[in-house]
Amino acid sequence: MFFSKERDSSSEYVPLALHADGEDDHSPSSSLVVSENLSALATSKPSQLHKLILYFSFALALLSATNIAFLPATLSKYLAYPLSDSELEALPYGDARLGLDRAAKMIPTPHVYHQVWPDRIARVSRKLKNAVWGQGVQVYVTVEVRMSVLHFLLVHSLQQAIHPFPSVATGMCAAADAKRKDSTIMRFPIPSTGVNACAVSWRPPPEFSARAKDVTTKGDITEIEVWQLIAPSASSAAAVPSSMDELDYDNVSYSTLPVRGELLGVLNLTAKPNSTTVEFACPSEADRITVEMRCQRVACHLSFMQIDMAPRFGFELVRRRE
Q1: Cα dist from 211 to 101, 118, 120, 205, 313, whole Å
Q2: DSSP per residue over 85-113, as a string?
Q3: Which of 83, 139, 186, 301 can bridge 87 by disulfide, Cβ–Cβ 3.0-4.6 Å?
């Protein structure tokens, strides 16, 4: 009897809380309402997100179009009223840019030249003094050495007598036996514009071009002399031309070689990328200049055809631009 009363008091029934309308929380009708509300919220959230993205994209496109519309006016205003040097210096960080106008002032003006090609080329030979090759495109500059047994013994004896200077004796004897000398005469038109500074230049063929094989060089070609020819030769049996402009290049030979004047300079044909003589005064009373290319080194040889085709190489006259 005692145990039954205790169990009855501990297992007292408590009714569930009801809504205001008297329905239970766990009733089937209330569960259905909650599920419907959740599904409505789930379907409304994606549609709102899409609308936000659409509105943001439209606003961004409108802002970009407005910036593009105002860009020409902004740039024209900036170009019309650039900042002065004092305004740039007043900025907190100064002028950090270089500017193309300032870069042009800092870079020195390079020497730019007018370049002209020879309009007359003729070869002459000291060995064949009366030989005539005529006007052409062949450039032939050479000094050939032919040493006989007598000259070899002379060189040997001089080397023994002048022991401290063996190279001097060798050079003297070899030069004495340099019987064959060929040189080339060239006439260059003088550019009409530019400063009074001309030079003769040698432009070698590109190293890896097919025309590099068109040039034949032997021996020492580091000193090709450029002599100015100033007057026709008076030793010709024919009528002597009155000026260099009347020189007949189809009949010129070593025996009728014009008179040499000034040594204009020396060219080193091994120099890269090119070789140029020192600048000299351009002839003021003439529109052409005639020069002779010759070599004084022993065993010097240069031959090629100076043809005006790409890639160009050969001798040219340059005049510095103003």
Answers
A1: 42, 19, 22, 6, 9
A2: HHHHHHSTT------HHHHHHHSPPP--E
A3: 83
Picking from 278, 191, 268, 183, the residue whose alpha carbon sits closest to that of residue 229 is 183
DSSP state of 247: -
For the ranges 97-101, 155-159, 203-207, 224-228, the maximum mean pLDDT occurs at 224-228
DSSP H or E run through 43 = helix 28-80
Q: For residue 292, how many other CB atoms are within 10 A of its CB?
A: 21
**Look-up of token digits 């032939």:** 140
Closest CA to 267 of 291, 295, 289: 295
Q: Which two tokens stand for residue 242?
A: 């009155």
Peptide bond into 311 cis (omega under 30): yes
Give the alpha-carbon dihedral of 17, 23, 25, 26, to 10 degrees: 120
CA atoms of 298 and 167, how far apart (whole Å): 13
- Look at residues 252, 273, 279, 1 and name the one whose alpha carbon lies nearest to residue 113: 279
Specify the pLDDT at position 302.
94
pLDDT value for 246 = 83
Amino acid at 92: P
